[in-house]
Write a structure and sequence with these properties.
The chain starts with 5 loop residues before the first strand and ends with a helix. The longest helix is centred in the middle third of the chain and has 18 residues. Strands 5-6-7-3-8-9 form a six-stranded mixed beta sheet, with helices on both faces. It is globular and about 75 Å long. It is of the alpha/beta class. It contains 13 helices and 13 strands. Helix 7 links the parallel strand 6 and strand 7. Helix 5 packs antiparallel against helix 6, helix 5 packs antiparallel against helix 7 and helix 10 packs across helix 11. 34% of the residues are buried.
């Protein structure tokens, strides 16, 4: 059997939370009654990530993403099911597990709050028994891509969120982990630093074979780093596969074209004629004086079909068929009828 670097088998996790009632009196009553209710964060989650693969773990808020990451990191224990990371169960040998993984939690720090950043890295080097040459080489790489050197003498507590996240990403990669778990790793970073984090993660993964599991609300993170996706909703896996294949599942396709100014048809009557020619649910709208947008099901609105229909009426001078965005695909996936039935 070809085992993955990360394997989750039927993971479940149920939390008990204090029950709340509407209104002020309901809130006060809840403080004294001790009533609780169950929240099922994971409901039989199974997936695998092969060694060296970069996978996005996606879902809306409350889908179970952070709970899964915490179980894989050894922070939480599943209610039932089993997981293996780098060949071991996270909670069995926590010290060995910590040496094999790197973790970034966007809202939590692994650095020493009152110490300068450089001291945190010195401590991490001792904890992981890093040879000095390896530690120095990694610090040079982090400084090159993340400007970490400018933060070296500053206590962690004085850093902005963006500055701290730069140090957090570097700390997670400092000991050359086999597995990198990223939960909102670019929160608080500007566009240029996000791109630097993307470059760093991709470079490390390519050169060292690091396995990456990323969860993020930032579509740019997912598109820039990951090749595969696992989508969860309501604690269950609803889709697995290649990112490219997921993008092809977009419910609509858009094609835009421009045509020559000497055409006899204005954009508005041209749009109406195209709707008749293309038929079905294709929607044709005017995007400018000589510019038209066609949107509809991917099998109906293909660049070839739109070009053929438009060229029969006007001289097309430019045509663009942009790929659907990941955000559009995910929105459609979350509201698909299959999702409500818990399709695995």
């Amino acid at each position: 059997m070809n085992h993955g670097m990360i394997e989750a088998q039927e993971l479940t996790k149920v939390f008990r939370v204090r029950a709340t009632r509407p209104g002020l009196w309901g809130a006060v009553r809840g403080l004294f009654t001790g009533e609780t209710t169950e929240v099922r964060a994971l409901d039989g989650v199974s997936f695998r990530v092969p060694a060296g693969e970069r996978t996005a773990y996606l879902g809306v808020n409350g889908a179970g993403k952070s709970t899964t990451i915490k179980i894989l990191a050894g922070v939480l224990t599943p209610g039932s099911g089993r997981c293996l990371v780098a060949g071991r169960e996270p909670r069995q040998d926590r010290y060995a597990h910590a040496r094999a993984i790197g973790v970034v939690f966007g809202h939590r720090t692994q650095l020493w709050w009152d110490l300068p950043v450089a001291d945190s890295f010195r401590i991490l080097a001792r904890l992981h028994d890093l040879p000095p040459a390896v530690a120095q080489a990694n610090l040079r790489l982090f400084d090159e891509l993340l400007d970490l050197g400018e933060l070296a003498d500053r206590p962690v507590r004085t850093l902005s969120l963006g500055q701290r996240m730069r140090a957090e990403v570097a700390a997670a990669l400092f000991h050359d982990p086999a597995v990198l778990l990223l939960d909102e790793p670019t929160i608080g970073l500007d566009l240029l630093l996000k791109e630097a984090v993307h470059e760093l993660v991709n470079r490390v993964a390519a050169e060292r074979g690091t396995t990456v599991l990323l969860t993020s609300h930032d579509v740019a993170d997912i598109s820039a780093i990951c090749e595969h996706v696992v989508v969860v909703d309501a604690g269950r896996v609803v889709h697995t596969g290649r990112l490219h294949d997921l993008l092809r599942q977009a419910p609509t396709r858009t094609v835009r074209f421009e045509y020559a100014a000497d055409a006899d048809l204005d954009a508005e009557p041209l749009a109406r004629l195209l709707e008749l020619e293309l038929g079905g649910p294709a929607a044709v709208t005017v995007a400018g004086r000589r510019r038209v947008t066609v949107q509809g099901p991917p099998e109906l609105v293909t660049p070839q079909r739109v070009l053929a229909a438009a060229s029969a009426l006007v001289a097309v001078t430019d045509l663009v068929a942009p790929e659907p965005t990941l955000g559009e695909v995910l929105r459609a996936l979350y509201v698909a009828p299959e999702l409500s039935r818990g399709r695995r």
